[in-house]
Predict the 3D structure of the following.
Amino acid sequence: MRRRARPDAPDGRVRLVYQRFRRAAGWLSARVLARWRRSLQLRVVTSALLASSVMTVALGLFVVHRVTDGLVVAEKEQALEQLASGVTYLGDELSSIKGQDDPELDSVLRQAARNLSDRGSRATDFAVAVLPTGNRRLSPKYVPRYSPDDVRPPAQLTGLIATGEQRGYQFTRTSLDDRPARPFLVVGAPVDTQAGRFDLYYFVPLDDQVATVSLVQNSLTAIGALLLLLLAAIAGIVARQVVTPVRVAARTAERLSAGLLEERMVVRGEDELARLAHSFNQMAANLQRQIVQLENLSRLQQRFTSDVSHELRTPLTTVRMAADVIHAASDTFPPALARSTELLSNEVDRFESLLNDLLEISRYDAGAAVLDPEDTDVRTIVTRTVDGLAQLAERTGSELEVVLPDEPVVAEVDPRRVERILRNLVGNAIEHGEGRPVKITLASDADALAITVRDYGVGLRPGEAQAVFDRFWRADPSRARQTGGTGLGLSISREDARLHDGWLQVWGWPALGAQFRLTLPLRRGERLAAAPLPLAPADAGSRYPRAIEAAPRALPAGAAHPALTPGPADAAGTEEEQDA
């Protein structure tokens, strides 16, 4: 059995520190990314700083490279000149030696090497080495001031001199004493005399050149850092001058969108930003004028609809009374007159329904619709609606199939409005169901309930779905209404659903029928996240993912509408038809 590490154990503390570090790093990276996405000024300054950094580094490397090359070339030329002088001096000193067996040869070589070391204008690190070739009577290496074992010419240079080259040079890292290895320039040349051949080497330290290059690098680094800070400040100031008017315009636009139509930008100067502010103010003034005109027109339209509806109610009541009296005596009329009396009574009923719907629409337009919620078992609403439309279904030949859960589905809803939604949906399904069955299904979960009304009639043709919830819209204008509807039922149903903070959506396809889905939260004020029932019916197959929805009025920023998440056989768009 695995034992869990205790927090006070060493590995537990390390894991805890690591987790805290990861959380802190994640939080910091999220803040930085959010700041990067939201700040144009930060992006401009960062981009300018990166570009300046690349240019500064490239320029610094170029300058350091040129300075290094100049110092190295100068030192090389000076060392080769000193080597040539040393070769001449050593040849003159050995000119008096008659041969390799001359007893004075060793002392002359020692003195010449000492003199060559003293003649140099170098520091004490400067070293001279004379190497005899082919004479075993002499010391293998003559080196003044340093141990011969420490002064070792590079093998590559000695090989070059052995091939007969007059002179050569090589850069190497070595040490002439106990100090760490450092850069040296080693130059060498052969000296041919009567006493034999001798190889002369100069070890020239490059400490001054390294110090100079380091000084140049440090200076360029400091200057580059200051230059980058200056460029960042300049970029920040310039970006702020450009971004500030944009921020002001964004804030002004937000206030305009919030309804503060009097907001305007301050115009300063005559440059491009001033022209932008002037154009923005002119656009805002035009929008304000147009919005005010539209509000006045909408207000007049709403008042006209409300006034006409109220004014028609009195004469309609009179006509209704007269129609009832005539219809009550229709048994004594001739058949043609009796039929006309029946039609008159039906049309008066339809006119009264239309008038009631117009009044309800005017309340929604005016924002005066009020919800009267109460805890209700939605199953009773579904049962009552189906019972009320049973005779209509029998007359059209449609069978109403109801699927209800065994447990009560109690929700905080307005029973009158929910029943009106279901009556419109079921009546619409009966009217367009072509005498085929109509299936009503109720389901719920912990947060929401859903009711689907499925018919197998004509369905929705491409291009028609987005107009389903429009006022007075009909799929087929030549089609006679069976239910005596007014053309406002689905529009009112959508408003009723939105008043409950719910969704009313529809799936449809030609010859496959349609399915409406009503989704409501169980508790008032809660936001819907998903529906207990899929939008597209399972019996439609997955080849027809065409749907149209009446979406909620507001969604969280960046949140996807739940109906936009396809189920096993559904895909949907918000009040817009998508191609299959």
In short: Residues 1-5, 480-484, 544-580 have pLDDT under 50 and may be disordered. DSSP finds eleven helices and twelve strands in the chain.
